[in-house]
TrEMBL record:
Gene3D superfamilies: SET domain (2.170.270.10). It holds the Pfam family SET. Coiled coil: none annotated. Transmembrane segments: none annotated. It comes from the Eukaryota. PANTHER family: HISTONE-LYSINE N-METHYLTRANSFERASE SMYD, SET DOMAIN-CONTAINING PROTEIN. This is SET domain-containing protein. Residues 114-212 form the SET domain. InterPro entries: H3K4_H4K5_MeTrfase, SET_dom, SET_dom_sf.
Length: 457
């Protein structure tokens, strides 16, 4: 069963002292419970933690026990994906499975399970008892399987897609979410969890990460909150979610110059997607005019139309007719995540049609949105800069053999190099200079350097 939080916090701190060189400690935060705190200050790019997996579990379609579980979940219409029940079952000890000869899969060692159960919280409710009675009938308390299911759902980190695999990391599981986290993470080539400071972290400050990917951090606040509520069962109340939404901005309907940002959504779960309420009463930063209910509804209708286009483009690339429709819908979307996602898709279309100027304009607009919508170091901004630099480098290569002559190429290559350098600085700080993201940009930067040398020769 779950360990009392006051006891477990001390146990986590002791573990951090031994395995994280005392750089972290566990504390209690109101409304969150156990959290990780910095024991010493950190600068942006510093490695805060490198941790081996506590447990790894993957789908095993070739294993009879896993196939039986999938069939059972389908027949009983259970509420969670079978992989979560599989992960919980794979977290039981040999004793809990009935001993040698009765276990249908490799059990977890007692010491690892002791730490894994520190990640559990009391009150897990679901269909774990039914799964336990069917697949682990000798488990002393079937309710404990529900707690293990929740521990995996709330703390698991995906490490593979096919087959789907999820990992648990002990200390990393105590990092709370923020839509503006002070740390970021990735899995290195050996499958270890690497945590880096995203900006300066003071001693005693809570260490936070994003449970959303870098792209999703630039979604509108309502969409971020809905995604977190669905996947992690909490309504985000971080600083970004409680401020005017910098990812959902429009040109003022009155002066057409000022920026209108959607108001923060309420403190409790509300709409599970975009709604018009945060737009009602939103004020222009220039003239101070407020958006009325009818205007808010009209803006929402246009947003939903853009969402429909983006959903359609997931199955088939945009057409010229799509581009014309999107251009009309996006008028007045001055600083909006849906517009940015559309720009990325339409930039591809312009590239396919050989319209290099409009392509570069959209890629630059995408980069500028990322910089304006997210304060601080952002992987999404770095990738937008990389895409813009890719477009510039391609334009330079086309120009080197065109009528413009080599003299026009040098400034374009210089712009590309500048954008690559900015992207490389961010990605190196967030993920390390040797990680794939940074390595790819470095290779492109070196190539642009060679092109520049050839032009100047």
């Amino acid at each position: 069963m779950a360990v009392p939080q006051d006891d477990s916090a001390a146990a986590v701190t002791e573990y951090a002292r031994e395995h994280a060189e005392g750089r972290l400690r566990c504390g209690m935060a109101e409304g969150k419970g156990r959290v990780l705190l910095a024991a010493v200050p950190w600068e942006a790019g510093d490695v805060v933690l490198t941790e081996e997996p506590l447990h790894l579990v993957q789908e095993e379609p070739g294993k009879a026990a896993f196939q039986d579980l999938v069939a059972f979940c389908e027949a009983e219409e259970l509420d969670e994906n079978p992989v979560w029940y599989w992960a919980a079952l794979r977290s039981l000890t040999l004793e809990e499975l009935g001993g040698v000869g009765l276990a249908r899969w490799a059990p977890l060692g007692p010491e690892r399970q002791r730490r894994l159960r520190l990640l559990c919280s009391s009150g897990g409710k679901g269909h774990g008892c039914a799964v336990a009675r069917r697949f682990a009938p000798r488990l002393p308390d079937p309710r404990g399987l529900d707690e293990l299911v929740q521990a995996w759902i709330l703390n698991g980190f995906s490490f593979s897609d096919r087959p789907f695999g999820v990992a648990l990391f002990f200390l990393a599981s105590f990092c709370s979410h923020s839509c503006r986290p002070n740390a970021c993470w990735h899995l290195d080539a050996d499958g270890r969890f690497v945590l880096r400071a995203r900006r300066r972290i003071e001693a005693g400050e809570e260490v936070t990460i994003a449970y959303l990917d870098e792209r999703a951090l630039l979604d509108c606040a309502e969409l971020r909150r809905a995604g977190l509520f669905t996947s992690k069962a909490f309504w985000c109340a971080c600083e970004r979610c409680c401020l005017p939404d910098a990812c959902r901005g429009f040109s003022c309907p009155g002066c057409a110059v000022g920026l209108v940002l959607a108001r923060p959504a309420g403190p409790a779960p509300g709409a599970r997607g975009l709604s018009h309420q945060p737009l009602v009463g939103a004020t222009c930063g220039g003239c101070g005019r407020s958006v009325g209910p009818e205007e808010a509804q009209q803006l929402l209708c246009r947003e939903l139309c853009v969402q429909g286009l983006l959903a359609r483009w997931e199955d088939a690339p945009p057409t010229q007719e799509d581009a014309e429709q999107a251009a009309e819908l996006l008028q007045g979307f001055a600083q909006h995540s849906l517009a940015e996602r559309a720009w990325q898709q339409l930039a591809w279309l312009h590239g396919e049609r050989g319209r290099w100027g409009p392509q570069l304009e959209l890629l630059l607009a995408s980069s500028r949105f990322c910089a304006a919508a997210y304060p601080g170091m952002s992987g999404a901004h770095a990738w937008a800069l990389e895409a813009y630099a890719d477009g510039l480098a391609a334009a330079a290569q086309r120009g080197s053999g065109g009528a413009g002559g080599a003299g026009d190429v040098g400034p374009v290559l210089a712009q590309a190099a500048c954008a690559y350098e900015q992207a490389l600085e961010v990605l190196s700080a967030m993920f390390g200079g040797g990680f794939g993201y940074a390595g790819g940009v470095r290779t492109k930067l070196e190539y642009v350097g060679r092109l520049t040398d050839l032009v100047g020769a």
